[in-house]
Structures are given as structure tokens and as C-alpha cells.
Amino acid sequence: MEVKQAATDVEGMLREGPGKYAGDKYDEEKVKAELDKLPDNLTADEAYNYLIPLLAEDYKPHVKVYDSLDPTIKTNVKTPDGVNAPEGELPKQVNVEILLDASGSMAGRVSGGVKMDLAKEAIRDFVSKLPEGAQVALRVYGHKGSNQEKDKEISCKSTEVVYPLGAYDKATFQKSLGKFRPTGWTPLAAAIEQAKNDLSGNTGENVENIIYVVSDGIETCGGDPVKAAKELHESEIQAIVNIIGFDVDNEGQRALKKVAEAGGGKYTTVNTGEDLRKHLEEEYDRLREEWYIWGLDSSWDAQIQWGDKWEELYNAEQVILDKYTRERDRMLAAKDYLHSSGKLQNDDVESELDDKIWNRSNLISDYSRETYLKLSDMLRKARDDEQERVKKKAEEMEKKYDQ
User: Fold this and answer.
1) Which segments carry the region annotation Disordered (predicted)?
2) What's the pTM value of the predicted model, to 2 decimals?
3) Can you tell me the mean pLDDT for 352-374?
4) For the domain 93-271, what is the CATH superfamily, name and number?
5) Under a CB-based contact definition with an 8 Å cutoff, are residues 101 and 300 in contact?
């Protein structure tokens, strides 16, 4: 009866199984029957080589867990969206286009000054504090003709870009704000439709397109701004349409809210300079709170990731423990049977075989325990490092918005 030489190193031992009667296939009487077939006068090496293909356990699936375990931990909780606030870090390419109502009613006065002046002030402040790297565009509408019936056609066709999409330049942007004055009707739908052309080509997972409509009233040119906003939001551009209303009556607010909702954005009313200041403060408070919650959620996410990976690691270590213990006990029982059956040369061979079985068990035990402890330590460090990272990030951003 020929038998393969058994492995002497732990790497080989872990790949030898499964034996014919390993695991649930073990049957003591069948094993004894196999042992009875072995030749007499066996040496320790020969006996050991016969036992391996009969009783060696299958460690490969659990070794694979060790080998494939990724000890890194990286949270994937979505960071708060800083676009609604005028300041924040830029997680991806952000394109902001402002559609400014230049209809005649924007020349009206409210508490704090002329509506158009307040609008320009709000826009100037907003774009100056956008994240570094954000691109900005400014489109006006209703800025030609007048708000008289005779000029309705020309005014309703008037919408143009006065600051093309690009990096923010303070002087150039300021100059663009002086290129028009409030005069005509309100072709809001046409402006939203044209914004789609302005942003064309800016698509993809790493691109975020945001529209801000600054207006004091509803569409007056017969267009359908709700439809236009919905189509823009649902297009490949996936733009979010937000609306800032200036001194808008109840009917106008209801209409503009519908436009913002259709565009996936929000509606905000700003009647005075003080209202604008409060609105921005509320945005900062919102972001500060969201970053605090993000820190908690991210820390918990790191803990969950650690727990899932550690459990997988621990289970593999425990199964290996169970298997090498079971394997050792069965091999020792087989050794005793061979000795009592007179298959071994002498008592010294029995003792040497006993040592071989224990050596195998100890090597597998040491490998498993050392690997488990090493990976466990790496996981713990990765978790702690990630939790510290998100803590610092959350605190940094909370402080940033603590205006």
C-alpha cells in the first residue's frame, strides 16, 4: 500500500485535508477497518503518513477567510451637502447657475432697499463663499423691453448668460451684475429651459448641477416653469432647482414652491437684508448639526464594519480550533488502536507518533492563533484610526459652520 509523504510545515498541513473520514464522515469502525489493512511493523513516519489521508481536517475554507480578509475600515456615510450653504468643501465638481429675474417689478422697494439691489447683494455674497473649485454661471431673464404690453414679446424672449459657466472671479462677476437693470416681463420657464443648454455636457456621478432662481414673482409669459424644472431635474444633467423669492405674495409663493419641488430643490423667501442674514445663519446651523450627526453615524459605521469583519475572523479561528482538536483526538485514538493491534514496531514508535500528532496540532494552533491576533489588531487599529479621522473631520466642519 503506497501512501503520500505528509507535510512537515504548517502551510502544507493546512492544505492536506480533507481526509476520507474527516469531519462528519468520521466512523470509528470504518477507520479501524482501514487501519487493520495497514502492514505490520510500521515506523512513526509510515503510520503518520497513513493517518493523514484518513483523518486530516479541511482547513482551506477558513485559511481563505484569513487570507482574503481586508483589514481596512473606511466609512461610507454620505457627507452633508454643503451646496445650500455658501461655504463648504467640495466633494465633487459643483456647477452653480443663478437665474436672476430682471423683470420690472424687481425695481420695487422693500425694507432695506430696492429688490434688485438686495438680490445682487445676496448673489454676490452667495457665490463668493461657494466651495473652492465650484463653477458659477449667471443668466438673467426679462431684462429687455419693458413691462408694458407693447414690449411683452421682446421681453418674454429675453434671457441671456452674462457670466458664462466657469471659475468665480470677483471683479468679472461684479461687472456682470452691472450689465442689466430690471425692466420687463418674467419668462421664468424660458430661462430654466436655457439653463439646460448652459449645463449640457456636465453630467456624471462626480458632477452636481444646482440652479438658483432669484425672483419676485411668477411666470408672466405663458410658459410652464414647473414642467421646465421637472424636465431639467430628470434629465441627464440632474440639476436641482432652488428658488429664492423676494417679497413674493402668497399666490406667487405657492407657484414658485411648485417649481422648486418639481426641480428637486427648495423654496426660500427673502424680503429684507435681515431676512437674508437669518437665512444664511439657519443654513450654517443646519450644516453644523448635520456634520455632528455625520460624525456619530460615521463612527458607528466604522464600529459596525469592525464588528462584521471581526466576527468573520473570530468564527474562522473557532472553527479551526474545533477542527484541529477533533483531528488530534481522532488521530490519537487511531494511534492507540495501531499500538494495541501490534501494527507499530515498538513503544518508542508509539511515543514518536504521539509527538508527531501533537506537533501537527500545535503548529496549526499557533498559526491560527497568531494570524487571528495579528488581523484582529489590524482591524482594531483601522477602526480606531477611522473613528479618530471622522471625529476630527466632524469637529472641523462643525467649527467651520459655527458662524
Assistant:
1) 1-25
2) 0.59
3) 97
4) von Willebrand factor, type A domain (3.40.50.410)
5) no
